[in-house]
Write a structure and sequence with these properties.
The protein is an alpha+beta fold and 147 residues long. It has helices at residues 62-68, 111-115, 117-125, 129-142, and strands spanning 2-5, 38-40, 43-47, 50-55, 75-78, 82-86, 94-97, 106-109. The protein has four helices and eight strands; from the N terminus they run ββββαββββααα. A hairpin with a 2-residue loop joins strand 3 (43-47) and strand 4 (50-55).
């Protein structure tokens, strides 16, 4: 799935901040997103009526990860901040009950993430080699528009 940012203002996010994994914090005047920029979505989570996307924001874009490597630091953002450009999702994506924060809701992503989303996400942020390698494989796969 590919989305375009239509707002980087936290005030336009319907999702409660407790669900957002962005390192920008909740007291920022803008998120690290560029309006009209296209982003790949690596996971979606639905909690109640709110949908959020896991993306590589401007703090660390896909191009930088692919060119220079490093430890990925994807962040969760409210879907209201984006417009869907391409709704294609990888056929291997799976759906799981619950999210990394709660047993309620639903998560959809690549198999390694969905198997144990909380563990995978936290190990990824900690820079664990297996999770980093797996995530970078999907960054490479999803960094270009679906043909």
């Amino acid at each position: 799935m590919r989305v375009k940012c239509v707002s980087n203002n936290p005030q336009n996010a319907a999702a409660t901040h407790k669900y957002l994994g962005s390192s920008t914090g909740t007291n920022q005047s803008t998120y690290l997103l560029t309006i009209d920029k296209e982003y790949a979505v690596y996971a979606t989570a639905r909690i109640g009526k709110e949908t959020i996307y896991l993306i590589c924001d401007d703090a660390q874009g896909e191009e930088e990860l692919l060119a220079y490597g490093g430890e990925p630091d994807p962040a969760w953002y409210d879907a209201n901040l984006f417009e869907i450009l391409d709704s294609w999702t990888d056929p291997s994506w799976q759906t799981a009950q619950g999210t990394i924060w709660t047993r309620d809701g639903q998560t959809m992503s690549f198999p390694e993430f969905v198997e144990d989303a909380s563990r995978f996400y936290h190990k990824l942020l900690e820079g664990e080699p297996k999770e980093v390698e797996t995530f970078l494989r999907y960054v490479d796969r999803y960094s270009k528009p679906h043909a």
